[in-house]
Amino acid sequence: MYIEVKHLNKTFGNFKASNDVSFDIKKGNLVALLGPSGSGKTTILRMLAGLENPDSGDIFIDGKRVNDIAPGERGIGFVFQNYALFRHMTVSQNIAFGLKIKKLKKQDIISRTNELIDLVGLKGMENRYPHQLSGGQRQRVAFARAIAPNPSVLLLDEPFAAIDAKVRKELRTWLKEMIHKLGVTSIFVTHDQEEAIDVSDEIIVTNKGQIEQKGTPVEIYKKPLTPFVAHFIGESSVVSNASIFRGFAEIEEDKKSIIRPEFIEIGRIDEFINPSATDIGFVKSISFHGSNWEIVVDINGCLLTGYRSLEKPALKEGEEVSVLIHRLYLFDNTETKIIENKLKIDPMPVYI
Fold it and tell me: Which partner for 251 in 49, 101, 177, 243 could form a disulfide, CB atoms 3.0-4.6 Å apart?
């Protein structure tokens, strides 16, 4: 493994920001540290960079323990959330800053700076100042400045937070392509699960200073290992007594479960070929989401959220509907497991 973190602990006063944190990262991977505010993800990033010192534990990069190595000597590039560009410097001067600190030859600095300006798509903007650039362009400058000295590891602290939604999606794609093209091992902090799933090779989910789960985006989404991950990833409804639903009678009444929108289908009362596996409810609310309808349905006082294609007959608020729950996540304080509907015969409904 290229990066190895072993039993990191960090406390600020009475707050445990990192609690026995351990993980490893393969060379060249783009990894997301994902979690809510206060979960410890930024503290981990800052300890990797050398901007915070762990109370205990070890950090290894390419087999070398770096705990006692100064930030500037760790071979790490850092992209800050607010870009941290020098306002009095042009695009070229900002990108060249780290190269000048390393006292490279003037011609080498010019050559490397021009190479990066082309790479990040800012040709023709070399002499502009940060205030003359858009948010996406400033982020590209910050990225180019961070990779200019050819770091072995790139760290990014919420790199898309200050950018509007449309540009953010474009920049996410661009960043993923750039990092894979360069082959630099990279870690970025985010609280946005869509961002983490879309960009990363692996996701490390943090919560209350600990690692809840590490895996590919598909693994994290489809096989959550803890109740927190099951609830945090995806849009979920938490149900206190799933035994009320058809096909799940064997579930103990005190067991909580999570039902995601893609786990259920909502249709007209006569829409499903296997009514014994469906519950009856009524439409509480309907929201248009562009590619589909988001429907909140009430089943005996339990509210579930599902999606319905625009190609299917429209439903109305207050309408009685059939709800087929394909599966759910059942969890307690230690584990999460998937439970399938026992009464379901055909995996796909027949619409009439």
Answer: 243
